[in-house]
Structures are given as structure tokens and as C-alpha cells.
Amino acid sequence: EVLLKEIHHRVKNNLQIIASMLTLQADSIKDEADRLPLLESQNRVKTLALIHEKLYGSKDLRRIPFDEYAADLCTTLFRAFQAGRLTLDLDLQPVQLGITTAIPAALVLNELLSNAIKHAFPEGRHGLVTVSLRRLAEGRCELAVADDGVGFPEGMAVESTPSLGLQLVSVLSKQLGATLSMERGRGTRFSLNFEEEA
């Protein structure tokens, strides 16, 4: 148990070093459009590092309290994107996930929340982003990210979007054996329906 904790601690440290190197690389690039992919990759690496940090501090090395993890990740992303004009609403039921489910679910959350912050509120609009996590019947969970922004473009499917982030969401959803749904209306709502143990 001590050895496994130490491994998670070292993996977390190594991922933080990679994130720091990506920051240094991004800082050396003047053009914002060229910097953005590096900063997005940095957020993905930090998402993984946070999983290992939670496992290092957990009593159960096989499962993490995903509600606590999701709250930490959402807060970190809002700080990283300096999304002060947006309000974050968290509605997270207590859910424990195994590591093989938590990692892809965490990456999906990272991509969906980042996408909402960056694209749903153009020209400095104010708005609300809601992240929810709840238990469903028969050992299933739903993770959802909703916004009251401009809405996902009509006629565009998640699978065919040119966005790397949404392509990752599609691939990771399949890896989880999850059902990914998108609702258009007053903004956009993405929901991921998956088994607690994928």
C-alpha cells in the first residue's frame, strides 16, 4: 500500500513537471492562436495529475471520490481560464469511481468544461455553467456539463466536429462504453451515461 501511494505520488510529480514544461513552452510563443493548443494540453496533463493526487491521498487506492475530484477540477479550470464573468454551479452527488473509469471520465469533464468556457460565451458574455454528477439505477452514473450560452452549432455532430477536444470526448465515451448525449436549447447540455465500473 505504501509503495502504491509512492508510485501515485511520483506519477503526479512527473505529470506536474510535464505541465510546467508546457507552460514554459507556451510562454515563449507570442501568438495566442499558437499558444492555445499547448495550454489545452497542459490542462489535460493537469487533469491526469489531479487523479493521481487524489489516489495518493485516498484510503482506498482502487477508487476515488469522483465528486470531490470533479469539484477540484472545475475550480482549477475556471481559475486557469480566468472565467470571472461566468458562474459555476456544481451539483455533485457522492460517487466513487475506479481508476479505469475515473481517468476517461475526468478527461471528458475537462474537455466539455473547457469547451463551454471557451466557446459558449463569445465577446465577453456573462453566463452560467452547470456541472452535475448523479447516480442512476443499476450501477450507472450521469456526468453532465450544461451552459446557457450561444448553443452548439446546428447541423454539427460531436463525432464530425473539427475540434480535437470534442473528438477526444467521442473516443473516450466509447472507451467507457458510455452513452454521450447532447441537447440544444437555451445553450447546450452534454451528458455522459456510464457504468461505475467500466
Textual characterization of the structure:
The protein has 198 residues and is an alpha+beta fold. It is 51% helix and 23% strand. The protein contains five helices and seven strands; from the N terminus they run ααβαββαββαββ. It has helices spanning 2-27, 32-56, 66-80, 99-119, 164-176; strands at residues 63-65, 86-92, 96-98, 127-135, 140-147, 179-185, 187-195. The strands form two sheets. A five-stranded mixed β-sheet has the order 2-4-5-7-6, covered by helices on one side. A two-stranded antiparallel ribbon has the order 1-3. A hairpin with a 4-residue loop joins strand 4 (127-135) and strand 5.
Topology (elements, then pairings):
Blueprint: H1 2-27, H2 32-56, E1 63-65, H3 66-80, E2 86-92, E3 96-98, H4 99-119, E4 127-135, E5 140-147, H5 164-176, E6 179-185, E7 187-195
Mean pLDDT: 86
Count of DSSP H/I helices: 5
Which percent range fits the helix content? 40-55%
What does the radius of gyration come to?
17 Å
Categorize the overall geometry.
globular
Strand content: 15-25%
Placed side by side, the strands forming the largest sheet appear as: 2-4-5-7-6
What is the count of β-strands? 7
* SS-based class: alpha+beta
